Amino acid sequence: MATAVITGGTDGIGRALADTYLARGHEVLVLGTSAEKGRAFVDAAARSGAGDRARFVRADLSRVAENRRVIDLITETCRAVDVLVLGARYHRSTRVETPDGFESNFALFYLSRFLLSHGLVELLGRAERGTVLNFGGAGLTGPVRWNDLQLRRNYPGTGALGHSGALCDLLGVHFGRVHRDTPVRYVLNHPGVVSTSFAGEYDSSTAAHVDRLRTSGKPVSLAVAQILPFLDAPPARLTAVLEGRQVSTRGPGFDPRDAARLHQETEKLLAGLPR
Ligand SMILES: NC(=O)c1ccc[n+]([C@@H]2O[C@H](COP(=O)([O-])OP(=O)(O)OC[C@H]3O[C@@H](n4cnc5c(N)ncnc54)[C@H](OP(=O)(O)O)[C@@H]3O)[C@@H](O)[C@H]2O)c1
């Protein structure tokens, strides 16, 4: 049986993808922090007769140790991973650091995706067509603040999401170089504005802006329909998709030298943490 692992699978686009893969007969493991949302996913699956294929694991993926725990758990319990969807995000209008000392968007939107992409590559390689879907910036959301990856100076508010998106684009580029011997495909997707929960904590002006996005965004079903063809048959080892349209991975947002640099800097940051 094929397996889909979905971070942020308890809500928004991730939840819709989780339901899609359940309906296709996959075993689906969703990750999130809310036990209530996790139970809602498992209960809905049970009602549709797929309860034995739906699993929820509660994890705060903004913590490095939690990502490592999840990688171990998946490695122990899954023979292979066919689809890995990296969709967890939680935005705050003001800068917050995680207990590991990382800016919170950097930690959840980028570092968790770095750890899970590389940490699950062996299981992805065991699947017939292992594929990673990472919601990045599809080359549009840089530039990277190389001297301030933790966004300590002039925290950009919602711009922090775009900054992490740019880091995810570079992660996708370098993933294929590190794992050039595996057939694993990497799909970077910017879905455009989608009407989801926009999980986060916002000041009043950002909350008003987010409310407008919730009302004006496209339905989740459309965002899913725009990405599924690329997930089902990725046209290249690395594919970038912007609102359902394939875009070039040769632009400045996908520079291989920047991708290698970010990989190195990330390894250095991780090396500074206790194992
Ligand atoms: N919606 C848009 O307009 C839009 C635009 C561009 C890009 N995207 C990207 O698309 C992806 C999905 O976005 P969305 O809008 O569908 O998401 P969403 O509705 O805001 O849901 C966020 C998900 O992340 C999970 N999450 C939050 N904090 C977490 C943590 N610390 N550890 C683990 N999981 C956590 C939440 O689960 P719990 O509540 O259970 O923790 C939830 O399932 C994201 O990468 C987003 O950046 C979305």
Question: How would you summarize what this structure contains?
Answer:
The protein is of the alpha/beta class and 275 residues long. The chain has helices spanning 12-23, 35-47, 64-77, 104-119, 121-126, 159-178, 204-216, 220-232, 256-271; strands at residues 3-7, 27-32, 54-58, 83-86, 91-92, 131-134, 185-190, 200-201, 238-242, 245-247. Helix 3 (64-77) packs parallel to helix 4 and helix 4 runs parallel beside helix 6.
3D structure, described in words:
By secondary structure, the protein is of the alpha/beta class. The protein has one domain (3-271): Rossmann fold, CATH 3.40.50.720. It has helices at 12-23, 35-47, 64-77, 104-119, 121-126, 159-178, 204-216, 220-232, 256-271; strands at 3-7, 27-32, 54-58, 83-86, 91-92, 131-134, 185-190, 200-201, 238-242, 245-247. It has an eight-stranded mixed sheet, sandwiched between helices. The protein has a two-stranded parallel ribbon with strand order 5-8. Helix 6 links the parallel strand 6 (131-134) and strand 7. The mean pLDDT is 97. Pfam families: adh_short. It comes from Kitasatospora indigofera. InterPro entries: NAD(P)-bd_dom_sf (IPR036291), SDR_fam (IPR002347), Sec_Metab_Biosynth_Oxidored (IPR052228). Keywords: Oxidoreductase. This is Oxidoreductase.
